[in-house]
Prior knowledge:
The chain is α+β, with helices and mostly antiparallel strands. The protein has eight helices and ten strands. The protein has a single domain, classed as Alpha-Beta Complex (Aminoglycoside 3'-phosphotransferase, Chain: A, domain 2).
Amino acid sequence: MADVKQVEVVVAHHECATLRVGDVFLKVDADQTRTDVEVEAMAMAPVPTPEVLWRKPPVLALAALRGTALGRLGKPSIASPAAWAAAGAAARMLHDAPLPPWPGRSIDEIASRLDGECEWLVTNGVLPTDLVTRNRRVAEAALKPWTPVFTHGDLQVSHVFVDGDEITGVIDWSEAAQGDALHDLAILTLGHEEHLGDVVAGYGTHVDLDVIRAWWSLRSLLAIRWLVEHGFDPFLPGCEVDVLRARM
């Protein structure tokens, strides 16, 4: 790393930051519980993950993955249908693996938080009442009992790396836990509905598409306040607010 001439800020907000220095990613997180989860989840996951180079709290050093992200929210993906199917297959491998020992959020916890976020969005005039109400109704389909599986918890399209049609790794495991398999599939296809069929084909078993769509609404409603407060824009084309509008 001595010859590195540039430090790239990959992402930074009030909770944590990720820097790229050459072929090394440095994740700085004040909450070491999240880092504990990330390291243990990567060790357990049956899919490719970044190599842990070293850890000196609050910094976790990870090796860069080969390839590029499957896509970005708000931008068309140039990845092939086969690459999207491979992402679905990787999700299935994860969901078939033994459960992590720590639980995820309960349905009651998610529902309570959803109610609070919907109230905030309407009270503060961030979104029209009818848009929030409609999507809160759609989200109900996700708030039903599920069989817990090993979930990534934040399987955004930018967290899945591919080289051609091959999955080279999955990053950002700090939200991994026991959870609903369809939540992972929904986050993977959020804003990329055109690739849902490819992902489901790669996943290889029947899934309830209405529940996936419900998670799109739920995830977007939950995310908007956090994004606004951390300097991101959920109103950009193809992002969370457009996802909600598509349900109208």
